């Protein structure tokens, strides 16, 4: 019996070659892309899931009710972790951690590695296996380090016999010897914390100066709760602790007009589950877990599968009408509903089975280009999990059940005589039309999302950031020499080059450089009886000149003024916060009774992510604070040659250090790399979704035209023009697209408007985005259906009327 069903299924598939091929091509493309997208989404969602203690491990953060509104801080003072462990119950393990690059020297070989300064308890909390050395204590003393396999191969070329070897690390401005105590497994690709070497936390350059200070905050804290202790219990336990240790800050905030939270508190510790850390956002003054990116990818994969499945169901229903006589004959010979159903289902299953196999082959062929294009480390292991395979199998079963079962149900309800006549009244094709409307609703949503996302990216790319990003090269100072010395040496090397206009330096980068770092420093102080918070930036001479910043009042740091080490240059936002009519008259007493004077005000510029509102900024020029980036402004002509000249100068100044220079416009582009990836995925999903919808629409239009062949012939005989016949056949489909547009537009507007609120400045949500998406969908549908209907309308009416 099964053999007979398979034989009939094969014959029917071969008989309808066009529709079989359309189904297989569409399903294969959809499955291939869906596998790759699902793989990426599941990889993103798997971040930090490998930690054995993940259910009891958290990152600490502090919510602050300030005069400026609610703020979140994940940077903590050095004495906080030991004090919490001693004074607050419920903590099993707690560890400080900070990520920085560190320069390593071994046998005259220099290289920079990703370092993590950690407390020993870091390895009791997290699962980073030790391959060699003491697995329970990878950092047995202050002068020991642990190194990953990847880091070991970079330094020694091997992981064999390296335990006990001594390497030098540049800590601050000094080199210190360290002994390798352990070799660790490489950090997994889905780990939020990525490192090549771990160093005891007390060796951090800021540790000694900050170990007793509660106002110097620069590192995150992770902790593991005792078994049975809930997050709510821990947060409640910290209330007396916060009131004691942050008393001065709370009183200052109250004095300056801060409003308490719903619980009447001004500062409160909270915990973020470690599995949410990768998706955490603190930019709006509240802690949010935003998984939009992976869910969006997963949603597009499901949408693509839905579109191609809708095509398959529509074509299966339409094709079933051509098999009425076969069904009538089989019913005459005694076939029952179950047998008809099984026949249709088997045919659907056969097409899906072939498509799934081809989809797996195609996805494997596209894997490497896909990973490069979307900058992901995902692998097929992410989609071969048992739960995923079971869900996928269940989905295929349901789709084929609908595709095969619905036509069989329709056919089995027919009387035998009516089936033999080949007459089927399927009403107004509500299911078919409903699926087409849903397909084009999704297509219009994707097109609108693509247009808005590309518009936002272009807006960010072309936005005036307040500085010259096209002509300035930023270079991480990753060598042995002092930052000021390197900047001075670069000036000397490049001073005779007419294409080099100026050289300066700072302790923070603009955008995200090739070294991958992006950071900021904040400080607070009292001014005229109220608290003031500002971002702090250490700069060298010619900073404003190099970046083409606009000076609003006063002057910049000048070599002719010896007192400029005690001077400040502030931005407009900082001047507004200080509130004086004449900002150049402001003097600010800070630590150790040292008074600083404001000598200049620069126009606000985007020194942080473009998505953030410009905050108060204060520029210092204090030689005690090092520089970590050099800036070189080049002439607009011969930019490529100028870049090479800068690189050559760097190789003379720091011959052992890697040159990681890049233009600031490249750095800015890296800050919205996630948006560009989203745009690429949505664009690809839109194109594929539309193509798949068009395949289904084209196939359905062929069947509709075939069913109305006689009608076309009659209309032409009585004088109907080709255009009127083509319009008659096309308008029903265009009505469905219009309905889809009316459904999609308000949905798209709501979600896109919500998404744009994440940006301090963004593109306006113009009606043109929605009209463009609707017109594009209409045009595509018209071309798809029109090519077939015009051909039918142009046919000889005699031939049309002669057909039975």
TrEMBL record:
Q: Where are the transmembrane segments?
A: 21-43, 292-319, 340-367, 387-410, 431-453, 681-706, 733-752, 764-785
The chain positions of domain MacB-like periplasmic core read 23-236, 493-636
How does the record classify its membrane topology?
Answer: Multi-pass membrane protein
**GO molecular function terms listed in the Swiss-Prot or TrEMBL record:** transmembrane transporter activity
Q: Which GO terms describe its cellular component?
A: plasma membrane
* ABC3 transporter permease C-terminal domain boundaries: 300-414, 686-797
* Sorted UniProt keywords: Cell membrane, Membrane, Transmembrane, Transmembrane helix
Task: Report the subcellular localization.
Answer: Cell membrane
Main localization, broad class: membrane
Show the PANTHER family listed in the entry: ABC-TYPE MACROLIDE FAMILY EXPORT SYSTEM PERMEASE COMPONENT 2, MEMBRANE COMPONENT OF TRANSPORTER-RELATED
Q: What is this protein called?
A: ABC transporter permease
Q: Which organism is it from?
A: Flagellimonas pelagia
Phylogenetic placement of the source organism = Bacteria, Pseudomonadati, Bacteroidota, Flavobacteriia, Flavobacteriales
């Amino acid at each position: 019996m099964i053999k007979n069903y398979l034989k009939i299924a094969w014959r029917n598939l071969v008989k309808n070659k066009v529709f079989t091929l359309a189904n297989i091509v569409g399903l294969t493309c959809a499955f291939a892309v869906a596998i790759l997208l699902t793989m990426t989404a599941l990889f993103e969602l798997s971040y930090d899931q490998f930690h054995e203690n993940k259910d009891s491990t958290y990152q600490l953060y502090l919510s602050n009710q300030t005069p400026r509104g609610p703020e979140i801080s994940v940077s903590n003072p050095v004495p906080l972790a030991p004090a919490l462990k001693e004074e607050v119950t419920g903590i099993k393990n707690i560890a400080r951690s900070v990520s920085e690059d560190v320069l390593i020297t071994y046998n005259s070989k220099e290289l920079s590695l990703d370092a993590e300064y950690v407390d020993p308890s870091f390895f009791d909390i997290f699962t980073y296996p030790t391959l060699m050395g003491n697995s329970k204590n990878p950092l047995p003393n202050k002068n020991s380090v642990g190194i990953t396999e990847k880091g070991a191969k970079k330094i020694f070329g091997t992981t064999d016999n390296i335990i006990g070897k001594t390497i030098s690390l540049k800590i601050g401005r000094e080199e210190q010897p360290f002994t390798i105590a352990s070799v660790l497994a490489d950090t997994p690709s889905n780990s939020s914390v990525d490192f090549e070497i771990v160093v005891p936390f007390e060796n951090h350059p800021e540790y000694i100066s900050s170990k007793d200070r509660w106002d110097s905050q620069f590192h995150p804290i992770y902790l593991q709760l005792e078994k049975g202790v809930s997050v709510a219990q821990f947060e409640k336990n910290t209330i007396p602790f916060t009131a004691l240790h942050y008393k001065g800050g709370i009183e200052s905030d109250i004095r300056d007009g801060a409003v308490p939270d719903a619980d009447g508190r001004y500062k409160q510790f909270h915990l973020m589950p470690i599995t949410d850390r990768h998706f955490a956002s603190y930019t709006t003054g509240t802690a949010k877990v935003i998984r939009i990116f992976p869910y969006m990818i997963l949603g597009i994969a499901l949408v693509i599968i839905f579109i191609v499945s809708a095509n398959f169901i529509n074509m299966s229903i339409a094709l079933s009408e051509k098999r009425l006589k076969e069904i009538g004959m089989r019913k005459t010979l005694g076939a029952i509903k179950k047998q008809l159903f099984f026949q249709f289902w088997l045919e659907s299953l056969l097409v899906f089975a072939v498509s799934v196999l081809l989809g797996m082959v195609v996805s494997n062929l596209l894997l490497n280009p896909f990973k490069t294009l979307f900058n992901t480390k995902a692998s097929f292991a992410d989609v071969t999990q048992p739960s995923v395979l079971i869900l996928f199998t269940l989905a295929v079963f349901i789709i084929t059940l609908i595709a095969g079962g619905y036509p069989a149900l329709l056919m089995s309800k027919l009387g035998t005589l009516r089936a033999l006549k080949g007459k089927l009244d399927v009403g107004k094709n509500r299911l078919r039309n409903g699926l087409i409307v849903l397909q084009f609703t999704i297509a219009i949503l994707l097109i609108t999302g693509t247009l808005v996302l590309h518009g936002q990216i272009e807006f960010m790319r072309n936005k005036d950031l307040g500085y010259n990003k096209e002509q300035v090269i930023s270079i991480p100072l990753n060598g042995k020499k002092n930052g000021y010395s390197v900047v001075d040496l670069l000036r000397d090397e490049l001073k005779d080059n007419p294409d080099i206009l100026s050289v300066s330096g700072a302790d923070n980068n603009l955008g995200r450089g090739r070294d991958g770092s992006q950071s900021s420093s904040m400080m607070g102080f009292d001014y005229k009886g109220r608290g003031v918070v500002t971002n702090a930036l250490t700069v060298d001479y010619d900073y404003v000149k190099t970046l083409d910043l606009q000076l609003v009042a006063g002057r910049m740091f000048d070599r002719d003024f010896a007192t400029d080490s005690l001077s400040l240059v502030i931005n407009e936002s900082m001047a507004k916060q200080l509130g004086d009519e004449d900002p150049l008259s402001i003097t600010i007493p800070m630590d150790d009774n040292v008074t600083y004077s404001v000598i200049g005000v620069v126009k606000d510029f985007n020194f942080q992510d473009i998505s953030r509102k410009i905050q108060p900024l204060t520029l210092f020029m204090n030689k005690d604070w090092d520089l970590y980036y050099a800036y070189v402004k080049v002439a607009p002509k011969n930019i490529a040659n100028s870049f090479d000249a800068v690189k050559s100068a760097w190789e003379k100044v720091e011959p052992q250090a890697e040159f990681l220079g890049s233009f600031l416009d490249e750095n800015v582009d890296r800050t919205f790399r996630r948006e560009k990836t989203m745009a690429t995925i949505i664009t690809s999903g839109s194109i594929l979704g539309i193509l798949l919808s068009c395949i289904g629409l084209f196939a359905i239009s062929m069947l509709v035209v075939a069913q109305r062949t006689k009608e076309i012939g009659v209309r032409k005989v009585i004088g109907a023009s080709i255009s009127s016949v083509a319009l008659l056949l096309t308008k029903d489909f265009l009505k469905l697209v219009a309905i889809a547009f009316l459904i999609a537009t308000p949905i798209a507007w709501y979600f896109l408007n919500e998404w744009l609120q994440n940006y301090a400045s963004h593109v306006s949500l113009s009606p043109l985005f929605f009209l463009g998406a609707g017109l594009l969908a209409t045009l595509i549908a018209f071309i798809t259906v029109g090519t077939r209907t015009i051909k039918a309308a142009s046919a000889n009416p005699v031939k049309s009327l002669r057909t039975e």
